[in-house]
C-alpha cells in the first residue's frame, strides 16, 4: 500500500475533500495507484494528512460514486479497474481529466453534487437492466416526442404529485427547459401567437429563448402573490410565462384565487399560460401547492417540468405537457424534430420511476435539503449581521443573498470563492443590478455548511 501524499492549498476556492478526491483520482488514472491496490483506511489517511475524517470520507464517497474505487466489506477500499479493455496508456489519453479552466466555469453551478443527494447504485442497477435485458430497444431510433415508457411514467407522476391529468401523447421530452421552450416557440406562431409576457424579475435564459425566436416580449412586475395579472395585455391573443408555485427569484407563491383569475384572463383573451413548475416538489414548509395546470378546464395551460434538480447534474431531461389542441399541432410536424435526450437515459429514468426509486429519492431530498437549508440560515444568522439577508427560504435548491455593501456582485463572488463557496451574481440569471448573489447551498455536504459560511462572512467583515 503506497502512502498518499498531497500538499493542500488552504486558501484555495476548492474544499479540502475536492483536492484530495482529485489527487487520488489522478493517481488512479495515471497508474500511480494500480488497479486492485488497497487504499489507506479512512482513519490512517486522515491521520497521515492531518485532515478530519469527514474530509477523507467525502473524498472517498465521491471516488466511489464515480467508479474510481470500490469498497469491500470488512476489508477496505481498493482502486477500481477503470481500464477494462485495450491498452491502458491509450485509455488514459481518452479518460484524462479536463483542464481546470474547463471545469471551473464561474458562471455555472458546481458540477459536483453531494453524494448523499442521489442513490447512484439504484440508477446503475436500472441502467444495467436496460443494457443487459432491453438492449434491443436501443437498436431503434429515438421517438422525437420522447420514449413512450418515460412519457407514461411522467403522466403517472404529475397526476399523483401535482394533480395534473394528461395522456402520454400530450407529453414532449427534451434536453432541458430551454430546448423544450424552443419547441414551444415553433408551435405558438401556428396559433397566431407572437407575443409573450414574462415575469419581472424573472428567469433570463427562457426569456432569451422567446426573444431569439422572434417573439416580442413584455415585462410584467411580480408582487407578493406572483405576477400582477392586472398588468397583462388584453384584447389580443398572447402567451404569458409564469412560475406560480415557486417564482424565481422572489419565491412568491400564487394563491388559488389569483390562479383562477389568471385562468379567466387567458379565457377572456384567447391566450395561453406557460407554467414553469421548476423545483415545485422541493418545498420544505407545508405541502407542495397544486399546479396551475390542475385547475385548467379549457386547455389554456402548457406545463413545463424538469428532473434537473432531483437527479444529478449530468442528466438533462425536461418535459412539456401540451393541451390537446396544441399536442395535435405538434403531432402533425413532430417528424421535423430530432430528439435531444439520450434514449438510454430516458429508458433508465422510466425504469427508475417504475421501480419507485424516484419517489423515494424525492422524499429523501426534501429531508436532506430542508436540513441543509436550516443549517445555512442558522450559519448566516450566527456569523452575519443586518447587511446580509437571505431570501426565498421555503423551497428550491438555492438561496438569494442580498448584501448591503459597497462591493460589487463580482467582488462578492470572488470573496465567496476564496472561502470555498460557489455563488453566482444575481444579474447572470435575472435582470438586476443589485449586489445580490445566488448561493447553491444544496451542493454542500452537511458538515461543511457552517464552517464555510462562517469563513465567508468573516472575510466579508474584515
From TrEMBL:
UniProt xrefs under CDD domains: AAT_like (cd00609)
Family: In the C-terminal section; belongs to the class-I pyridoxal-phosphate-dependent aminotransferase family.
Domain HTH gntR-type: 14-82
Domain of life the protein comes from: Bacteria
Official protein name in the record: PLP-dependent aminotransferase family protein
Keyword Ribosomal protein: no
Organism: Candidatus Fimisoma avicola
Record has Transcription as a keyword: yes
Source taxonomy: Bacteria, Bacillati, Bacillota, Clostridia, Eubacteriales
Single Gene Ontology MF annotation: DNA-binding transcription factor activity
Keyword annotations from UniProtKB, A to Z: Aminotransferase, DNA-binding, Pyridoxal phosphate, Transcription, Transcription regulation, Transferase
Classification via PANTHER family: HTH-TYPE TRANSCRIPTIONAL REGULATORY PROTEIN GABR
InterPro entries on file: Aminotransferase_I/II_large, HTH_trans_reg/aminotransferase, PyrdxlP-dep_Trfase, PyrdxlP-dep_Trfase_major, Tscrpt_reg_HTH_GntR, WH-like_DNA-bd_sf, WH_DNA-bd_sf
SMART domains in alphabetical order: HTH_GNTR
Gene3D superfamilies: Type I PLP-dependent aspartate aminotransferase-like (Major domain) (3.40.640.10), Winged helix-like DNA-binding domain superfamily/Winged helix DNA-binding domain (1.10.10.10)
Amino acid at each position: 500500500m503506497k502512502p498518499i501524499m498531497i500538499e493542500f492549498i488552504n486558501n484555495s476556492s476548492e474544499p479540502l475533500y475536492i483536492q484530495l478526491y482529485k489527487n487520488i483520482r489522478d493517481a488512479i488514472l495515471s497508474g500511480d495507484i494500480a488497479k486492485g491496490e488497497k487504499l489507506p483506511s479512512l482513519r490512517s489517511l486522515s491521520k497521515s494528512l492531518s485532515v478530519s475524517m469527514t474530509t477523507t470520507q467525502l473524498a472517498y464517497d465521491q471516488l466511489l460514486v464515480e467508479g474510481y474505487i470500490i469498497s469491500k466489506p470488512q476489508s477496505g477500499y481498493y482502486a477500481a479497474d477503470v481500464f477494462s479493455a485495450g491498452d491502458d496508456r491509450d485509455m488514459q489519453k481518452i479518460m484524462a481529466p479536463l483542464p481546470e479552466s474547463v471545469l471551473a466555469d464561474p458562471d455555472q453551478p458546481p458540477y459536483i453534487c453531494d453524494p448523499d443527494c442521489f442513490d447512484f447504485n439504484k440508477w446503475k442497477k436500472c441502467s444495467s437492466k436496460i443494457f443487459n435485458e432491453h438492449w434491443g430497444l436501443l437498436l431503434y431510433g429515438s421517438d422525437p416526442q420522447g420514449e413512450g415508457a418515460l412519457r407514461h411514467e411522467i403522466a403517472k407522476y404529475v397526476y399523483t404529485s401535482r394533480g395534473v391529468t394528461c395522456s402520454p401523447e400530450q407529453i414532449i421530452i427534451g434536453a432541458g427547459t430551454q430546448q423544450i421552450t424552443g419547441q414551444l416557440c415553433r408551435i405558438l406562431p401556428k396559433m397566431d401567437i407572437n407575443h409573450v409576457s414574462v415575469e419581472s424579475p424573472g428567469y433570463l435564459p427562457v426569456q432569451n429563448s422567446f426573444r431569439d425566436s422572434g417573439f416580442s416580449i413584455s415585462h410584467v412586475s411580480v408582487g407578493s402573490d406572483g405576477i400582477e395579472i392586472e398588468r397583462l395585455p388584453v384584447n389580443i391573443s398572447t402567451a404569458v410565462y409564469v412560475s406560480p408555485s415557486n417564482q424565481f427569484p422572489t419565491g412568491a407563491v400564487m394563491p388559488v384565487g389569483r390562479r383562477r383569475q389568471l385562468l379567466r384572463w387567458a379565457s377572456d383573451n384567447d391566450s395561453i399560460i406557460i407554467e414553469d413548475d421548476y423545483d415545485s416538489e422541493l418545498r420544505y414548509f407545508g405541502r407542495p401547492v397544486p399546479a396551475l395546470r390542475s385547475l385548467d378546464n379549457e386547455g389554456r395551460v402548457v406545463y413545463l417540468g424538469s428532473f434537473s434538480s432531483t437527479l444529478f447534474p449530468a442528466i438533462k431531461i425536461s418535459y412539456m405537457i401540451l393541451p390537446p389542441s396544441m399536442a395535435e399541432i405538434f403531432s402533425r410536424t413532430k417528424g421535423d424534430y430530432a430528439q435531444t435526450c439520450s434514449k438510454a437515459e430516458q429508458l433508465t429514468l422510466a425504469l427508475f420511476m417504475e421501480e419507485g426509486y424516484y419517489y423515494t429519492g424525492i422524499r429523501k431530498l426534501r429531508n436532506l435539503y430542508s436540513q441543509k437549508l436550516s443549517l445555512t440560515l442558522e450559519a448566516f444568522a450566527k456569523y452575519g449581521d443586518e447587511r446580509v439577508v437571505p431570501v426565498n427560504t421555503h423551497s428550491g435548491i438555492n438561496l438569494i443573498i442580498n448584501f448591503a455593501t459597497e462591493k460589487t456582485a463580482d467582488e462578492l463572488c470572488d470573496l465567496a470563492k476564496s472561502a470555498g463557496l460557489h455563488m453566482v451574481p444575481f444579474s447572470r440569471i435575472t435582470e438586476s443590478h443589485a449586489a445580490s448573489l445566488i448561493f447553491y447551498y444544496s451542493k454542500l455536504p452537511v458538515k461543511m455548511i457552517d464552517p464555510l459560511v462562517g469563513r465567508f462572512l468573516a472575510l466579508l467583515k474584515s
